[in-house]
Amino acid sequence: MLRGMLIVTELREVVGTAVVSAASRALDLALPALCAGCGLEGPPLCDECRPDLDVRLWSDPGVALGLPADLPAPLAQLEWCAPFTGVTRRALHQLKYDGDRRLVAPLADSVAHRWATAGAGGDVLVPVPASPDRVRERGFDQAVLLAAAAARRLGLRSEVALERVRETAAQFDLDRSARGTNVAGAFRVTRPDAIQGRWVVLVDDVVTTGATLAACATALLEGGATAVSAITVARER
Ligand SMILES: [Zn+2]
User: Lowest mean pLDDT: which of 45-54, 165-174, 179-188, 206-215?
Assistant: First the structure.
């Protein structure tokens, strides 16, 4: 894996990103399969690491002790599978930055399981769209893949019904109050027919302050959704 990453890094300096993502995919196929959690050879998440994604499976719905308690308005519910640490963090990192799409299945399983045990309702899953630049760079939108796979497991539909209408600064570069301003008005409903009169469940990889989810929820409610909840793979404090 390391050797593969070094080759990719060198390639990136020589050629464009599009060629690199094709090269990364070719390398993924050529490299031995390793667990994203522990690095041992085997499935994308081994049996030892897999349960880390489901640590909250049987927790009460809502916000755990020690975490900021506010539910970002106008969300009806916010759920997540695990804290953004350890195995969960490494798995999301390997999906997003190494393009290891084999991780979509186990991560989406956890989203579906947690929503099935804790979700108060919902008619349609809608992914939080990544910026078009990131999608071009990576060759895929991880939230779209996660929402589609989780929806199949839940027997619900998943609809790409939102788009980013403007670029936003990376949320992790900003303090809490700047994050809300950064993303407010950044999303637009592209498929009103898919969300009107429906209870939407937003799907994303990580939630921090919830400002991005709140901005999406505002756009969806203005676009005619009846309610908007959200579930993410991980929550960062
Ligand atoms: Zn493992």
Answer: 165-174
**Ligand 1 center to residue 87 CA distance, Å?**
8
Residue 13: its pLDDT value, please? 42
d(CA 163, CA 178): 21
Ligand 1 center from residue 6 Cα (angstroms): 22
- DSSP secondary structure of 76-109: SEEEEEEESSHHHHHHHHHHHHS--GGGHHHHHH
CA distances from 168 to 13, 134, 179, 180, 213 (A): 26, 12, 10, 11, 14
Tell how far the Cα of 91 is from the centroid of ligand 1, in angstroms: 10
Span from the CA of 36 to the centroid of ligand 1 (angstroms): 6
